Amino acid sequence: MIVVQHFVSGTTIRYKTSTSIEDGEDEFSKVILNRVFWTFKPSIEGFQYCKPIVQVDKTFFTGKYHGTLLTAIGQDAI
């Protein structure tokens, strides 16, 4: 991701990590990558032309995601 950020200027990258301590090892000996978010500058700039709306469809989640509402929200920067 560092290479992408270097060669594609304007790329935004955010990491979410946690640490793991196992018996007999130093504190914070392992770093666990939980998730990575990245976006490219044209994607960010394109949001200025979008209308601020929230849409929820009738998708019915089953099993593990039963009763979960999945949403994505973009905010106008003006």
Structure description:
- The chain has a domain at 2-49.
- By secondary structure, it is of the alpha+beta class.
- The two termini are 30 Å apart.
- The mean pLDDT is 76.
- Strands 1-2 form a two-stranded antiparallel sheet.
- The protein is built from 2 helices and 2 strands.
Instruction: Give the SSE string.
Output: HEEH
Reading side by side through the largest sheet, how are the strands ordered? 1-2
Structural class: alpha+beta
**Mean pLDDT over the residues:** 76
- Rounded to an integer in angstroms, the radius of gyration calculated over CA atoms is 19 Å
Contiguous uncertain segments of 5+ residues: none
- Percentage of residues in strands: 15-25%
Distance between the termini: 30 Å
Number of strands: 2
Sheet with the most strands, sense and barrel status: 2 strands, antiparallel
Tally of separate helices: 2
Coarse morphology = flat
Percent helix, as a range, is 10-25%
Topology:
Blueprint: H1 2-7, E1 12-20, E2 30-39, H2 41-46
Briefly, what is this?
This protein has 78 residues and is an alpha+beta fold. It has helices at residues 2-7, 41-46, and strands at residues 12-20, 30-39.
Question: Which short descriptors sum up this protein?
Answer:
15% helix; 78 residues; alpha+beta
